[in-house]
Amino acid sequence: GELHRRMQRSGYAGQPWQARLDADQRDEFRRWGQRTFQLVIDYVAATKRNERRLLLEEAEKMGALYGAEASRAGLSLAETVEAFLFFRSPVLDAIVSHAAFHEANAAIDSVLTALVSSHREPRERSTG
Prior knowledge:
Layout: H1 2-9, H2 16-19, H3 23-45, H4 49-72, H5 77-95, H6 101-118
């Protein structure tokens, strides 16, 4: 809640990529983003190696979904990464006071890598 309000105050509605999505798409992306960053927070808090691995894998799947859907929605890779980074910053700000910041940052970078890997630029899309 507070994180979302902070993002709204920081100019979320004025972002060019945000204006290209309809209300349903924005809601869907918001839910996916919330789920993804919750997985990262759970990953940081997890103490068992296997649990951490599963949480990171799930977060990476969410990143891949986000990238593929952003591509389908017509966002460029640059716009998709810009949107991801816009939401990444407040999440990291929220956990920066914790000793696990570097682990969270590495996990989020892994999600971003999955996002970029699944995004296809228009010229790469299948035409048939």
